[in-house]
User: Fold this.
Amino acid sequence: MSILQSRADTLSLCALSDAPDDQALALRDIRNEDGVRANMYTHREIGPEEHRRWLSGVRDDPARRLYLVRYHNTLIGALAFSAIDGTHRRADWAFYLTAAVRGQGLGRALELRALDLAFGSLGLNKLNCEVIAWNTAVIAMHKGFGFIEEGRRRDHVLRDGVFHDVYLLGITAQEWQAIRPAAIKDKTP
Ligand SMILES: CC(C)(COP(=O)(O)OP(=O)(O)OC[C@H]1O[C@@H](n2cnc3c(N)ncnc32)[C@H](O)[C@@H]1OP(=O)(O)O)[C@@H](O)C(=O)NCCC(=O)NCCS
Assistant:
């Protein structure tokens, strides 16, 4: 088994509906970390009431699924699917991890789990995401998993007085099945 696959297997994904309240609430601390909110469309800090409203909005919305990501029983981040469309079998996704665990390959492990989940039990045919142009490491990471650049929304995000482009990336179930063996293979040094 590849290192990436075994790392992915150590991540536990807990659906919001099964998550203890305190952990769902604790997710706000990670979402508010500078390194996370900097890369999100909503950049300001999220207050406790806004977070509660967001959680209940997700719970009530069949087009959204949120998973709390745990590693060795510690909450480390989130994986979110949105705009889940049963007719066209497509969805958008996003993810983030707390700064303390970054750079150890867990982001790639989580992306592997997200793709397997999307094209496995969620039964999707197409997975899409949007990444702000400055987030080049994430764009490269997605492409390494087979995402294709489908377009670029120009001047889509205003941050500190400057407009930034957003990359539109997507992958089909068939593309994922084709690239999966190569994507999870250990890199030779
Ligand atoms: C995206 C994120 C989950 C990745 O997690 P991670 O633990 O840092 O990822 P990994 O350790 O698996 O690294 C993945 C790759 O990105 C590269 N990378 C990660 N952060 C990097 C950085 N700041 N600069 C350059 N490369 C970086 C790694 O070198 C690795 O490249 P490789 O596959 O060629 O070895 C995490 O950085 C994060 O939460 N970011 C903030 C939120 C965000 O941007 N989410 C994505 C948009 S929704």
User: Anything to note?
Assistant: The chain has one domain: 3-184. Residues 35-36, 39, 94-97, 102-108, 131, 135, 137-138, 141, 144 surround coenzyme A (CB under 6 Å). The two ends are 17 Å apart (CA to CA).
